[in-house]
Specification:
CATH topology: Rossmann fold
Strand order of the largest sheet: 3-2-4-1-5-6-7
Number of domains: 1
CATH class: Alpha Beta
Distance between the termini: 44 Å
Shape: globular
Helix content: 40-55%
Radius of gyration: 17 Å
Length: about 220
């Protein structure tokens, strides 16, 4: 009983802060995108390509969630993003208070897109509102088709699902048709896009989705 009450209180406070973040960003003309995936699914490479694609006309900032290192933030700075590192020291997800603290440190002048690269897993991050305008879930072909059914919430809350690393599909036992059908059965509103950021395959469809929904 006590645990349930405490968890509800924490979640409610988080949602209040998230709502405030969303309102503030909307007032400033900034759209935030919360990106969720397992480790190694290609979040950082996707963001490198995306930031570079829209620069310099559309300026981006990135809040990078990582348990300990700043490796991804350094890569995204090189790509042209205004990157801010959030180290959780082992915590498995970002929260709205963390994002609020980061926003207080970031110069958002001229920023139109705010990417949030969440901690790498498909369980904890899916339950926390960060004040984003949209959520994107990545599923790499190397993870297996069954991950959609195993981690349903991560796909149920997504506005867009990216099936990544499709250049590796010939070497993986991944059923693209089944994965797409499973995602759409869970979440008929989600756009499903197969792509390979490394091979530059399917990226134009992703850029167009960002333009349509965030710009």
């Amino acid at each position: 009983m006590v645990r349930i009450k405490v968890m509800k209180a924490v979640s409610t406070k988080n949602d209040e802060i998230a709502a405030g973040i969303r309102a503030e960003l909307a007032e400033r003309g900034i759209k935030a995108l919360n990106i969720i995936s397992s480790p190694g699914s290609g979040k950082t490479t996707l963001l490198e390509r995306t930031i570079a694609h829209f620069a310099p006309d559309i300026r981006s900032a990135v809040i990078v969630g990582d348990p300990f290192t700043a490796n991804d933030a350094k890569r995204l700075e090189v790509a042209g993003g205004n990157a801010f590192q959030l180290n959780t020291e082992g915590s498995c997800h970002l929260t709205a208070p963390m994002i609020r603290a980061a926003l207080d440190e970031i110069d958002l002048s001229g920023i139109k897109l705010l990417f949030i690269e969440n901690i790498g897993n498909l369980i904890c991050p899916s339950a926390w509102d960060l004040g984003e305008a949209a959520r994107v879930t990545l599923l790499s072909v190397t993870e297996g088709t069954d991950k959609v059914d195993k981690y349903r919430r991560a796909f149920h809350i997504a506005h867009c699902v990216l099936i990544t690393k499709t250049d590796l599909a010939p070497s993986c036992d991944f059923d693209l048709e089944k994965a797409t059908a499973d995602i759409q059965a869970l979440n008929s509103r989600a756009t499903v896009l197969p792509l390979s950021a490394k091979a530059s395959e399917g990226m134009e469809a992703w850029y167009n989705w960002v333009k349509q929904h965030l710009l």
